[in-house]
């Protein structure tokens, strides 16, 4: 991009911002507008929704839930859910500020999900695959026994049907309310991915905002090809913990998809509008 192109793009963004601000003045109903968390622009909620939850001014990619991700990526009516009968329990009868059972119930009411991952079979532009889609809205996308079990069973089903696997991650890490049972899912899912590799089947990761902790340290980054959505933050420990540990200031783009691409930790960074085509091309090349 030349300097002139940069100024033209900036001028266009400023004009769009002024147009949006004028619309806010004429129709200031707060139920219709939202402020972008990245650039502070006032955006019509309908415009944000129609733009796949991406800010039309600064291109900030909002986090979306698993159901919306499925509807955006996969061929219409192609998704067939598997293992929905697997539901979480409370083996440790864990209580902190509230009981684990109560937390699970609240998460279920909020998301209409039983746990933090949806698994099934689907296709993208006719390319069939086994898919696991995580949902951050369910207890921060934390990986407990159910997530580990469903991902492992999905991989076993893929081996049985000779299908590639796509794992779409969004997680804060392991679910501490399940203690060691949660941490064991890291080894369990990693072993399942290893078996998939032994069978010569393709495994693709799509990392979305945010992916941290035990998911990053296990099935979330073991793919033959790792795709990251634009702007997604990816890591093990959080930025603040690392800065306090090493007592140094980290780069502003540290742990972003673009930073990881620069250092070879992901293979592709894709904008949301291009993800479907990017994934279709990957699976087409490996059929």
Q: Unreliable runs, pLDDT <50, ≥5 residues?
A: none
Summarize the biggest pleated sheet.
7 strands, mixed
Number of helices: 10
Please tell me what the overall shape is.
Answer: globular
CATH topology of the largest domain: 2-enoyl-CoA Hydratase, Chain A, domain 1
Overall number of strands: 9
Top-tier CATH class of the largest domain: Alpha Beta
Describe the structure.
- With 287 residues, the protein is α/β, with parallel strands linked by helices.
- It has two domains: 1-60, no CATH class; 63-285, 2-enoyl-CoA Hydratase, Chain A, domain 1 (Alpha-Beta Complex).
- It is built from ten helices and nine strands.
- The chain has helices spanning 3-26, 45-50, 66-73, 100-111, 145-161, 179-198, 213-216, 239-246, 257-262, 272-285; strands spanning 33-35, 42-44, 80-82, 117-124, 127-134, 165-171, 203-211, 225-229, 268-270.
- The strands form two sheets. It has a seven-stranded mixed β-sheet, sandwiched between helices. It has a two-stranded antiparallel ribbon with strand order 1-2.
- Strand 6, helix 6 and strand 7 form a beta-alpha-beta unit.
């Amino acid at each position: 991009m030349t300097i002139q192109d940069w100024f033209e793009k900036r001028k266009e963004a400023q004009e769009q911002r002024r147009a949006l601000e004028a619309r806010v003045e004429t129709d200031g109903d707060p139920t219709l507008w939202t402020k972008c968390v990245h650039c502070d622009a006032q955006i019509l909620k309908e415009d944000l929704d129609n733009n796949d939850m991406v800010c039309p001014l600064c291109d900030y990619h909002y986090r979306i839930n698993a159901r919306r991700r499925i509807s955006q990526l996969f061929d219409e009516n192609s998704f067939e859910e598997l293992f929905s009968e697997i539901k979480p329990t409370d083996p440790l009868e864990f209580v902190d500020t509230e009981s684990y059972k109560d937390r699970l119930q609240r998460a279920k009411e909020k998301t209409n999900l039983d746990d933090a991952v949806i698994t099934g079979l689907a296709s993208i532009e006719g390319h069939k695959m086994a898919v696991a889609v995580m949902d951050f809205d369910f207890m921060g996308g934390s990986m407990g026994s159910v997530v580990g079990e469903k991902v492992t069973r999905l991989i076993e089903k893929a081996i049985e049907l000779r299908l590639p696997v796509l794992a779409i991650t969004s997680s804060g890490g392991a679910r501490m309310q399940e203690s060691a049972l949660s941490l064991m899912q890291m080894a369990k899912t990693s072993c399942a991915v290893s078996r998939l590799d032994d069978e010569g089947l393709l495994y693709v990761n799509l990392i979305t905002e945010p992916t941290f902790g035990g998911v990053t340290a296990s099935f979330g980054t073991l793919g033959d090809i790792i795709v990251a959505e634009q702007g997604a933050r990816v890591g093990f420990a959080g930025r603040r913990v690392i800065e306090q540990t090493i007592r140094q200031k980290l780069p502003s783009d540290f742990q972003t998809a673009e930073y990881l691409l620069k250092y070879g930790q992901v293979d592709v960074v894709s904008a949301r509008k291009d993800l479907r085509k990017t994934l279709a091309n990957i699976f087409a090349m490996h059929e």
